[in-house]
């Protein structure tokens, strides 16, 4: 049986599980939260409370996916369970971030661009990528842009009036619908290329305030208030995001993996989210 061990079974990994389970896959997902463990069971995923013994799951896993955020020491699973490096899995995926490229002042980057992270978060991701490659396992790295999807769209904040269009001239972000992350991961599983890195983003990098304005139009509401970046109240993580501006190329997922994006731009992605909301999905 094909078995996926999902280390840090989170939002993107759960989307992948929804694609694989109907095909007869067995999915084992780790979590620290007993409530999430119960939710996994209802989704058909076998929960493994962490910290725990990964030995039996590693012995049975044909595929491994790590979605855990790193810390100053790098990947938390590799630090806590070095036996992962002895896995016999034929495919290993690591979910990273486009933050590894740092700031390019709105310029384009691709997978050959040098990794020059500027934030602690980006530097930790570069460290973790290197640690996974150093295991000698058949590792595939997926550098994700800003993720949106069910439960992570802009509509709630636009509706309740808390959304703010933070404007920083020249600022652009890339983004990706979670359903497209899942199909990229599945395509890589079908067409493995150990050592490869893939940018996972849509075709339309753009200023973030555009997305909020479009969401408001879809809802028939006025634009959220505009706030200049230098006067915006933001968390440290949000401010770090705005400290980097780049456009991310996604040619490799199309050319190597044959992926056709379900949602190649945010208007299509947001329209689908709103349609699903109205249908109660």
TrEMBL record:
CDD domains: SDR_a4. Gene3D superfamilies: NAD(P)-binding Rossmann-like Domain. Its EC number is 1.1.1.290. One of its GO terms (molecular function) is 4-phosphoerythronate dehydrogenase activity. Keywords: NAD, Oxidoreductase. It comes from the Bacteria. InterPro entries: NAD(P)-bd_dom_sf. It is an enzyme of class 1 (oxidoreductase). This is SDR family oxidoreductase. It comes from Tabrizicola soli.
């Amino acid at each position: 049986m094909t078995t996926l061990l999902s280390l840090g079974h989170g939002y993107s990994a759960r989307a992948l599980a929804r694609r694989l389970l109907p095909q007869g896959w067995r999915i084992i997902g780790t979590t620290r939260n007993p409530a999430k463990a119960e939710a996994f069971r209802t989704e058909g995923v076998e929960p493994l409370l962490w910290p725990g013994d990964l030995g039996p799951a590693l012995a049975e896993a044909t595929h491994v996916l790590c979605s855990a955020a790193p810390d100053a020491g790098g990947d938390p699973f590799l630090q806590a369970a070095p036996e992962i490096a002895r896995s016999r899995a034929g495919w290993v995926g690591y979910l990273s971030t486009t933050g590894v490229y740092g700031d390019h002042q709105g310029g384009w980057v691709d997978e050959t661009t040098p990794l020059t992270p500027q934030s602690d978060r980006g530097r930790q991701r570069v460290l973790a990528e290197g640690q996974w490659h150093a295991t000698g396992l058949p590792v595939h790295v997926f550098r994700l842009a800003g993720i949106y999807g069910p439960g992570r769209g802009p509509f709630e904040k636009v509706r309740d009036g808390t959304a703010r269009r933070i404007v920083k001239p020249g600022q652009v972000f890339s983004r990706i619908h979670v359903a497209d992350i899942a199909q990229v991961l599945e395509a890589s599983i079908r067409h493995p290329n150990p050592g490869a890195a893939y940018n996972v983003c849509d075709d339309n990098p753009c200023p973030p305030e555009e997305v909020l304005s479009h969401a408001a139009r879809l809802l028939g509401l006025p634009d959220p208030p505009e706030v200049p970046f230098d006067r915006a109240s933001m968390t440290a993580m949000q401010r770090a995001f705005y400290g980097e501006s780049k456009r991310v190329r996604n040619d490799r997922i199309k050319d190597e993996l044959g992926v056709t994006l379900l949602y190649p731009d945010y208007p299509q992605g947001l329209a689908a989210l709103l349609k699903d909301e109205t249908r109660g999905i």
